[in-house]
Amino acid sequence: MRKLLLLSNSKLHGEPRLEFAKDTIIASCKKHCVSDILFVPYALKDHDEYTKMMTEPLAAMGFTVRGIHTFPSPKQAVEKAQCVFVGGGNTFRLLKELYDNELVDVIHKRVMDGKLMYMGASAGTNVATASIHTTNDMPIVYPPSFEALNLVPFNINPHFVDPDPSSTHMGETRTQRILEYLEMGNNRPVLGLYEGCLLEIEGNKCILKGKRGAKLFAEGHNDAKETFTDNQDISFLLG
C-alpha cells in the first residue's frame, strides 16, 4: 500500500518552509509510524547546505533527518529507510543522480510494496510521476531516461500558474507548454498543481489538499479538462 505526499513546492511566499503542509506531514507520518526521514538533496549542487536547510523545519516537527549523501551506500540507506523526502531543484539533475546511484528501482519497489513512505516537493514530486516530461526545468544534465519513479501513472506540473491576460510576455504560458506535451500523442494526463497544494496518496486513494487546487490537462482538450479544489478526491487518476 503506497504512501505518498507530493507537494507542489516546499516554500510558499510569506510563510516558513513547509508551513502549508506541516499538519498533513505530521499526521501522515504519525499514522504510518515514521520518525526518521532520509532526505535526498540531489536536485541542488550543495548537498550539505540543502540538507541543513530542510532539516530545520522537519526537526521542528519532531523528525530525525539525515542526508542520503552521508551514507556509504545510498542504495542501502533507502533499503533501510522508513521515509524518503526528495527535495526540489533541477529535475534533470535529480533524476540523473537517482539513476547514477541505482535508486530508481529500489525506491519504486519499496514504495509500491508499502515499505517506504515517499515525500517529494517540486522536482521531488516530478520524479515521483511517470516521467519528467512536464517539469519546468532546463536540461542542464542528461539522465539516462525521462522515465521516472512511476509511483503514480500520470504527470504533474508543479508550481502551476494560470496565464496572465495582462502580461506582455510573448513566450509560451505554462498551459501552452503542457498542451505541447499532450499534442505529441502522450496519453498520460497532466495535473497542474498550484503552489501551496499537495497530493496525499494511500494505496489507490488520492486526495488533493491545499490553498488553490489543481487543473487537469488531458489529450484532446485545448485547455484544462477539469479543475479541482481542496479536499477533493481525485483517485480516478490512479487508475
TrEMBL record:
It is an enzyme of class 3 (hydrolase). GO terms for molecular function: dipeptidase activity; serine-type peptidase activity. It is found in: Cytoplasm. Signal peptide: none annotated. One of its GO terms (biological process) is proteolysis. Keywords: Cytoplasm, Dipeptidase, Hydrolase, Protease, Serine protease. Pfam families: Peptidase_S51. It catalyses: Dipeptidase E catalyzes the hydrolysis of dipeptides Asp-|-Xaa. It does not act on peptides with N-terminal Glu, Asn or Gln, nor does it cleave isoaspartyl peptides. InterPro entries: Class_I_gatase-like (IPR029062), Peptidase_S51 (IPR005320). SUPFAM superfamilies: Class I glutamine amidotransferase-like (SSF52317). It comes from the Eukaryota. Its main location: cytoplasm. Its EC number is 3.4.13.21. GO terms for cellular component: cytoplasm. NCBIfam families: PRK05282.1. Hydrolyzes dipeptides containing N-terminal aspartate residues. Belongs to the peptidase S51 family. PANTHER family: ALPHA-ASPARTYL DIPEPTIDASE (PTHR20842:SF0), PROTEASE S51 ALPHA-ASPARTYL DIPEPTIDASE (PTHR20842). This is dipeptidase E.
